[in-house]
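Let's practice the habit of predicting before peeking. Look at the sequence and jot down your guess about where helices and strands might fall. Then scroll down.
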Amino acid sequence: MTTTTEHYTSMPAIFNLNTVMDCTIILTGIGMLGVLANKRMLLLAVISIELMLFGLNLIFVIGSLYLDDIAGEVAATFILTLAGGESALALALIMAYYRTHFNIFIAD
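Done guessing? Here is the structure:
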């Protein structure tokens, strides 16, 4: 009776870890560029922040699948909760800004 130490992961074979990590880094970078390049539109800044958080969630979930550990998925759940609260607060602030200034563009 021989024993082998094979590592079985729950990650499907169609996903290459490097490709998926590259995609998440690109998503996070696009979100960061959206925040940095945006000077006037509040809503675009909120969408860019959500894109960065989505890229971060994808990194945690793919890493969790690759390592066969639940901790990344738990962290992604907490980040989703944070993103929901952040977008609700940001939209409330945008509505308050709109009521006082009658537009959602930031004044120069």
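How did you do? The domain at 17-101 is CATH 1.10.287.3510 (Helix Hairpins).
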